[in-house]
Amino acid sequence: MTFSQSIITCFQKYFTFSGRASRSEYWWFFLFTVLGGFVAGLLEGFINAAAGTPGGPTLLSGAFNLATFIPGLAAGWRRMHDSGRSGLYLLYPMIAIIGLSVFIGMFGGADMLEGSDPSALFEGVFGLVVIVSLIVVVLSPFIVLFWLTRPSQPGSNIYGPNPHEVSP
What we know:
It is flat and about 55 Å long. The protein has helices spanning 3-12, 23-50, 59-82, 92-106, 109-114, 124-148. It is mainly alpha-helical.
């Protein structure tokens, strides 16, 4: 799949979270979102500088990010399906961060952070759980990145036919 085909496909499947997406479809669309965000940011910088309001409104990049968020999420979801995993695995880093935050909040960690000795957060059994959770939070984006780079499962899987084996 080419760069332009990937962009067209991802926008055509704007809210499609079922099926499979090839590596090229996902990574070309990812590159598009990175480059598009960079260009939108540059244009905003020039516009705001010309208007004499550096650091002014970020409507252009905000609109671009808003327009590409759902298709990017859907493409990643389908990409996980292509490697034989549930699309929910894409949200693993966010789930780990929320879980750690809830754990710290429920067991008084917020008080430890606000107190005079934040190192108390890392003491005892509570501290051990926090340290292990922090390791999971730090490693989880790399695990998801690894899954996103895996080759397609050959043949059909529970999410549909292999995109490389289906004629366009």
